[in-house]
Amino acid sequence: MPPLAGRSAADIVRLMAAFRGGTQPATVMDRIAKGFSEAETEAIAAWYAGQK
Amino acid sequence: MSTRHRSRRDVLAGLGAVVLAAPSVSAQTAPRVVVIGGGFGGATAAREVKRLLPNAEVVLVTDERTFTACPFSNLVLAGMRDISAQQFGYGGVEKAGVRIAFSAAKAVDARARSVTLGDGTRLAFDRLIASPGIDIRWDGLEGYNEAAAERMPHAWKAGDQTLLLRRQLEAMDDGGLVVMSVPANPFRCPPGPYERASLIAHYLKTRKPKSKLLVLDAKDAFSKQRLFQAAWKSIYPDHLEWVSLSTGGKVLSVDPATMTLITEFGRHTAAVANVIPPQKAATIATTAGIADATGWCPIDPATFESRLVANIHVLGDAAIAGAMPKSAFAANAQAKVCAAAVASLLSGAPAPEPKLVNTCYSLVAPEYGISVAGVYHPVGGVLAEVKGSGGTSRLDAAPDVRAAEALFAEGWFKTITHEVFG
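Output (structure tokens, whole complex):
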């Protein structure tokens, strides 16, 4: 599972969109990404990008 | 009580409680939050409240100095894991600034806002968070009481019961029949019985190949059913038989003296019997008045505040959380949402609108993991699954995906236990 630490917010938003759209291979993240809107994904990404 | 019979004084006292309730805390006073329950839900909630409100006095009430985690305890039963890998102390929680009261919560006075401990100490609170977990309904299955559980362990609270069932499986002769009884919904960890059945079957297949597991179920449908049944057919065709409700699986009574389980259709005598009995919210929930006639606790899905008693929040297995299952993952997610709501309410702010995630991994065999995931939000007063989200692992997944999910299951356990107890 690729780690979240060190990823930029833009990278996380792009990955989540790919999980939602089914273009990124996944075990569980495709099912979870579909539960969040784009705006929510951006907020999540900003939070993770701020974690050291 | 009808209004007509209430005295003027009672009514005024009631109003007084409301007036005192809001705003609950002045800026000068440190808010007091008491958390009942030292499991995944309670320990998370206590740490989160302290993190969000550093000046709050947060006390966690738990009667055990060592917590034994249920997730992965089925591996202990199958001899794949030591119980010590399931056990955690509260040093990390204390270091996070939470005071621990190692005692049982005996009573809750909602009006006085205090919790009474086993030694008589009273802890005052502005808000109480209850994550007390489950108790066995000792009146729920004829013949099954605390003495019977020493012969026919439930092992549905991890610890001594897990070790007892493990010893029984180890001591059983090759060729012995293992019988498991599974209750109707709702109960702790919906996929748990089927993971357990899988791993016991794995143990029998590899160590006691002449033995077999018979699963007597009070249901026709269960969590991750198609995935489990496909795996059982290919991996354990000679070692696991599942009997559904409609084919006579419902256990009506047990006789521990003869190790017999009685169903509508017949009697099964076991060499080892694992009776997973009906359950309810832990007894303190009933004592505190937060459990309803079902034995579980109705809540507001955004704040987890009890529908029955103001200023008491309930989460985890004890709560009626709509579409969310009773799992450690769910309790951890609910605890974060509840703590955020409690912190907001104590600060006089509205609680945020939450979204919650759950993922439950199950092992079917070593290096064979499957999962069910969901995203939830409040809709019309209950927690509902976000449309289009969630679901189970693919039925046609390749072995490397099953191996990856088994690895992720372990990663999840390490991550959550580090976050909650580390």
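The mean pLDDT of chain A is 91.
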